[in-house]
Amino acid sequence: MTHVRHRHDEKFTVVGNHLAQHKDLSACAIGIGVYIQSLPDGALVGITVLAARFREGAARIARALRELEAAGYLKRQVVRGEGAKLATVTTWYENPHPVDLVKRARPPRRESRPVPAEPEVPELTEELRPAAALLAGLRQREPRLLLSENDVRRLAAGTHAWLARGLTPEAVARTLCAGLPAGTIRWPARLLAYRLREWLPPELPPAREAPKLLPLQNCDRCDRAFRGADQGLCRGCQDDVHR
Question: Is 188 left (phi over 0), alpha (psi -120 to 50) or beta?
Fold first, then answer.
């Protein structure tokens, strides 16, 4: 559609799109509404007067007026006039909901959220360097686990916790690279951070002490070697003595 524009200098009516393009009003109601808005104050807009002006008929015009009334454009009040006669006073609202329309026209304002601060990159101490070397070398085993220097520093403490629990660097690297998802890994640092946190093995129970061996002694009777806390007779010689 193309508009052929014309500037009106007289005899024109300004109609808002909220009426001309109303989604819930019928074409008849919109047309009647535009006509009523073009009339001067004091004009008669009853059903009989409008039915004489338009060809739609009284029933259809009455239905259109009810639509306009429900939409807030039209208000009809029955008042008692001179001589106790009843009369209908009609009020036309060119924009029945100006505040609501402004709110609908403007998009809701988004609350400004504070920008999260960049996480600090921890310092790489001598204690964490073996863990950092392990992480940096993962890309040699699995090219998709390419980490930045900052990623290595952030993950070094978690990797050190694994090494501190008795695992060898080879065992840690093999576990971190096992069962990776197929395809591209967009955030390898996040994946490794999850595995380091959730797959951390438990600490080993304390090792049992090996039994202490008694020193070797030579039997005073047969000169046979035996283990005992003190010098003396071996078990065989002790049995012979006690028979």
Answer: alpha
Domain boundary among 161, 177, 198: 198
pTM confidence score: 0.42
Neighbours of 47 (CB within 10 A): 15
Tokens representing residue 159 in the block: 């990797």
Do 144 and 93 share a structural domain? no
Asked if 28 contacts 56 with a C-beta cutoff of 8 angstroms, the reply is: yes
- For 92, phi and psi rounded to 5 degrees? -110, 130
User: What would the pLDDT profile of 78-95 be if each residue is shown by its tens digit?
Assistant: 887 676 677 788 898 988
29 & 95 share domain = yes
Can you tell me the distance from the alpha carbon of 94 to that of 52, in angstroms, rounded to the nearest whole number?
Answer: 24
Contact 138, 173 (CB under 8 A): yes
Residues spanned by the domain of 185: 126-198
53-62 residue pLDDT tens: 999 889 999 9
